[in-house]
Structure formats: C-alpha cells, structure tokens
Amino acid sequence: MRTVSVREMGGCRGLGRFWGGWRRGPGVHAAPEAAGFGTEAGHQLRRRGSSKRSGPLGHQAFPGLLQLENLSREGLVDVLRAAVVDQKGPLVTLNKPPGLPVTGKPGELTLFSVLPELSQSLGLRDRELQVVQASGKETSGLVLLSSCPQTASRLQKFFIHSRRAQRPTATYCAVTDGVPASPEGHIQVALKLEHTDGVDLVIPVKSPSRKDFQEGVKRTLSHFHVVARGAGCALVQLQPLTVFPSQLQVHMVLQLCPVLGDHTYSACVGTVLGQRFLLPAKSTKPQRQVLDEALLRRLHLTPAQAAQLPLHLHLHCLHLPGMRPREAPMKLLAPLPSYFSRTLQCLGLHQQ
C-alpha cells in the first residue's frame, strides 16, 4: 500500500502511529432508550452549554484558523493551493482547514465556488476539478478532487460499495469532552434531519417505522476506538460506515462525550450531581459549548476563548483503490491542525 502524507500543518508528524491496525470491537451501542436524545430531569438540571455566547474574539488562541470574511477568491485559491497533499494524474488531495464549506448558496465563498480558479492554478487547463470526497464545513482534513469524470465516478462507486460491505474507507480523529464508557465498539442509531427555528438539526429517532424511513430517517453506523484518555477527555478514532450530516458529532453525544468545540449538539448533554445524561434533542437549542473550570485551566483558555473553540474533528486518513490494474491501494494521511495538536499536548493525550 502506498502512503501519501500531507505536509505539516503544525500537527503531529507521528499521528499515523496512533491509528495503525486497531481491531473493531463487537459491541453495538444504540441510542439511549428515550426518544430524541433524552428526557427532562426537572429543575435540578444544570444544562451544559447554557451560558450566553461571548462577543467576537478573533482567533488569537487558535492560530491558523481560516477567516473567510477576510479572504478574497484569489486568497482562498492561494490557501487551497498551499494545502495540496498530493497531485497524481487526475487526482488532487487537499488538507482542508476547518471553517471552509464545500458547497453553499450562490455567491458564497466555498471550495466548490473556486474550483475553476484552483484548476487553472494547478495547471489543469480545461480539466476542471470536481469533489469526490470531503469533510464537512467545521471539520478539518482530507478532501479528494478529480479532474477526470470517469475517475471521479469510479471512486464514488468504490466508496458506495465499501459502505455496503461495511468496510471503512475514512478515519477521523476527535478529542471528546468525556471518555466513552467502552474502549471501542459500534454506535448504531436512526437519525433524521429537521429544520427548526431556521436551523437544520440532526435528531435521533427511537424505533423508526416504515413511514419514518420513507420520510428521510436513516439508519447510521460508526466504529469508535479510544486511543488515549486524560484530564476527563479522550482521543478517539472514528470510522463512519454510513453518510449522514453531523453523524459523528451526534454519535459522540449519544456516548455522553461531545466532541470538543461542538457548539451545536454538546448542549444536549446535561449533568446532575456530576452525572451526565441526555436532554431531548427537539427542545434543546444549539448553544456554545461550556467547559468546566478544570478543563479550561488545562487548556489555558478563558470562557470567552472556549466559546470560539474550533471543532476537534479531523479527517485523518482515506483508503483508495489503485488507479490502474495491479496498482497497490493508496492510503492518504493528513496531520492535525496546530490547535488540535496543542490540545493534545495540554491534555496529555498520547498513545497508550
């Protein structure tokens, strides 16, 4: 297998050692019994993420974050060109910074909107790039592009067939606020997308009916493996076997361990007398994640800075087939952003 490592983004050069050859555990972790995320716990409850959003802080505490509002189209093309991991034949691989949407509304600055300029910048002339595989807006990590429609179609079929066979092709790494109860296992739950108060939110569905599936409910499945733990947090490897918006974030919330920097779903985890449990998703509005004082001290952050904490979810590895007959499969790797590596160092999260 040929391994291609992306250039350093201030991350850990040895990250690949974290993810080598782990075995998937047999346990399947379904959603808790209550529908949605959980049930109300009365007036004793202290909601996690309940404080008001702080004013704009900028990114002094998180160097290297992309600030789209300060970028022109030409500037974004320069950023993406510098983020190229590998360019071989029709394939171009990027290490996407967090905060960059892949698609968006007409006129918005997105990865898709600058693909013609990026294609020209990379010397592809009339062969315009198209997106084959990409992480979400707030997620950092690998993006796979192709200038050949036939190659793009072949790879998309490969990803579809791999999911049907439950063979993981993408590996994410995440830092979670909390440690999963099991060191490894599967998370399996039905999810649906609801538009509430102008926001699209992913909601777990208990015991979905045939009608629910006809209306867009989907069964989702992820593997997880705890690589390291410390200071009440964990470094977790995640491998999705289905595709659904915010799947990994919601799956970790269902483990009562929201991803660090998740300012959408972390509010669904509440605590009473130090015990965590789920709040009902439909009645819990997205709020900035609130971290306890001990964790803030370990991270050397103020509450205002923590309110701007970027999502610690990174698409670290993609497995691809060989592009020619008898060619060995490829493994693309991208190191962590600098803020992610800083968090690991502050929390003492190292391979055990």
Structure in words:
The chain is an alpha+beta fold. The chain has a domain at 13-52 and 169-306. The chain contains eight helices and 16 strands. It has helices spanning 73-82, 115-121, 149-164, 210-214, 247-254, 293-299, 303-306, 338-347, and strands spanning 2-5, 28-30, 46-47, 84-88, 91-96, 130-134, 140-146, 170-177, 184-196, 199-205, 218-230, 233-240, 269-272, 275-278, 313-320, 330-333. Helix 1 (73-82) packs across helix 2 (115-121).
Q: Helix count, per DSSP?
A: 8
Q: If you average the pLDDT, what whole number results?
A: 85
**Radius of gyration over all CA atoms, rounded:** 20 Å
Give helix and strand order, one letter per element, not per position.
EEEHEEHEEHEEEHEEHEEHHEEH
Low-confidence stretches: 7-27, 39-58
Terminal CA distance = 26 Å
The overall strand count is 16
- Helical content stands at 10-25%
Strand content: 25-35%
Q: What kind of assembly state do the chains in view correspond to?
A: single chain
**Coarse shape:** globular
SSE-based structural type: alpha+beta
Largest β-sheet summary: 13 strands, mixed
Pfam families: PseudoU_synth_2 (PF00849)
GO molecular function: pseudouridine synthase activity; RNA binding
Protein name: Mitochondrial mRNA pseudouridine synthase RPUSD3 isoform X1
Organism: Zalophus californianus
